[in-house]
């Protein structure tokens, strides 16, 4: 959870984008979900070597690709959203190996864009 909080706080500090719309609740939840995926991969799937800086850049890249304006990022309780997302992800009733494999397949490619 400490890493999740750090990622969320650093993302808030890096909150910039070229879009014209402020972050809405659904987008904030999507950001929290993606953060939770990376934290889950690091904590529960053996990907401890994923660099936090690369994860932060991937989160910002994800927001920019979606044309999200992160200027109001701090208006959401991202810590609580991230914890809820992590708890939801942890509670998915499939084998952890399969869950890790699917999460890695669907999300690690994002890190390749921000090396």
Automatic annotation (TrEMBL):
Entry keyword set: Signal
Keyword Signal included in the entry's annotation: yes
Pfam families: T2SS_PulS_OutS
Coiled-coil stretches noted in the UniProt entry, renumbered to this chain: none
InterPro entries reported for this sequence: Chap_lipoprot_PulS/OutS-like, PulS/OutS-like_sf
Signal sequence, start to end: 1-22
Source superkingdom: Bacteria
Protein name: YacC family pilotin-like protein
């Amino acid at each position: 959870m400490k890493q999740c909080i750090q990622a969320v706080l650093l993302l808030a500090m890096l909150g910039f984008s070229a879009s014209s719309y402020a972050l809405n609740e659904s987008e904030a939840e999507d950001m929290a979900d993606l953060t939770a995926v990376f934290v889950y991969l690091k904590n529960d799937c053996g990907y401890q070597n994923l660099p936090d800086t690369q994860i932060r850049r991937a989160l910002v890249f994800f927001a920019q690709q979606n044309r999200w304006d992160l200027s109001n990022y701090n208006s959401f309780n991202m810590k609580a959203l991230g914890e809820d997302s992590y708890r939801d992800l942890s509670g998915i009733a499939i084998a952890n190996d399969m869950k890790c494999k699917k999460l890695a397949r669907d999300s690690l490619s994002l890190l390749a864009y921000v090396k």
